[in-house]
Amino acid sequence: MVAQVASMPSLLVIGRFRVAAGDREAFHVAATAAIEALSAQPGCRAASLGQSTDDSDLLVIRTEWDGVGAYRRALSAFDVKVRAIPLLSSAIDEPSAYELIHDWTPAGVTMADSGLAADAGAVGLGHAAGPAVASVTP
Questions:
Q1: What is the overall mean pLDDT for the chain?
Q2: What does pTM read for this prediction?
Q3: Rounded to an integer, what distance in angstroms lies between the CA atom of residue 119 and that of residue 35?
């Protein structure tokens, strides 16, 4: 299988939630509304709700996007702010967005360079990184 090279990687967003058994029904209602709002946005490729097979209180909402820009624009949509953000705000506090730099599907393999600059962790908001900084993946 020949790999295709993408100019921009797609984005995988994973929100993990700890939900007690007594709160499960309300969570499912809110999760369904959140997934409907997110999946209706331009650039959303997929959205799903998952249940851990090892921990009955652990659930996950997974979305995939055309890129970080599509995801950020989706978060600005009114319907997402009303139907998804309140639930997403209750996710376990951990990094949740991942660029897919090597993506396999039945249709083929796509490779992409990360949009994250190699010095992203060292340069603060309002400070220039330099004219050209390589991404973290060559």
A1: 89
A2: 0.82
A3: 34
| Structure tokens given for 92 | 């376990």
Strand partners, 13: 63, 97
Q: Choose among 28, 47, 22: nearest CA to 37.
A: 47
pLDDT tens-place string over residues 94-109: 999 999 999 888 888 9
Domains and CATH numbers, the chain: 3-112 (3.30.70.100)
CB-neighbour burial class of residue 10 (10 A; exposed 0-12, middle 13-18, buried 19+): buried
Burial class (CB in 10 A: 0-12, 13-18, 19+), 9: buried
User: Which residues, listed in sequence order, are joined to residue 12 by a DSSP beta bridge?
Assistant: 64, 98
Contact 11, 98 (CB under 8 A): yes
| Residues 8-56 pLDDT 10s | 889 999 999 999 999 999 999 999 999 999 999 999 999 999 999 999 9
